[in-house]
Amino acid sequence: MICLIGYGNNMRSDDGIGIYVAQKIAAENNPNVKVCVSHQLHIEMLEEAVLYDKVILVDAAAGGEEVVFRKVDAGSKAYVASSHHLSPELFFNLAEKIYRKNINLYACSIKGESFELGNTISPIVYTRAEKSIDLIHSLINKDLVYA
Questions:
Q1: Which of 25, 38, 122, 145 could tie 113 with a disulfide, CB 3.0–4.6 Å?
Q2: Are 107 and 88 in contact (CB under 8 A)?
Q3: Each residue of 9-34: pLDDT tens digit?
């Protein structure tokens, strides 16, 4: 079973793209994928996340490449951006420390263009979301191999 968590603030324009992707995946009704949406990635989500074979986090990014899809593992550096936000790396490390489990964790970051107040996602970010959905489908179908 796979757990996909899409998160972001859908009242901050492109920041809501993680939720959009999660809702698109949820609409497929794949019985092997549980989809969750949240405003932020919370430590409380770990309790359930450690029960899945794979966990996929989907969020907006303020910069970088258009779409980055990567495996998060023990070699990934954890950082704390604020006391109210967990990075994927910190999420992974906390699962290891609290539950003594190395979760099979992937992070999908979609570059946003606007994080202003509003509930409209930029057209180019929708295009990036479709690319991320293709990558997620590849992982769900086990066609995507990571070293």
A1: 122
A2: yes
A3: 999 999 999 999 999 999 999 999 99
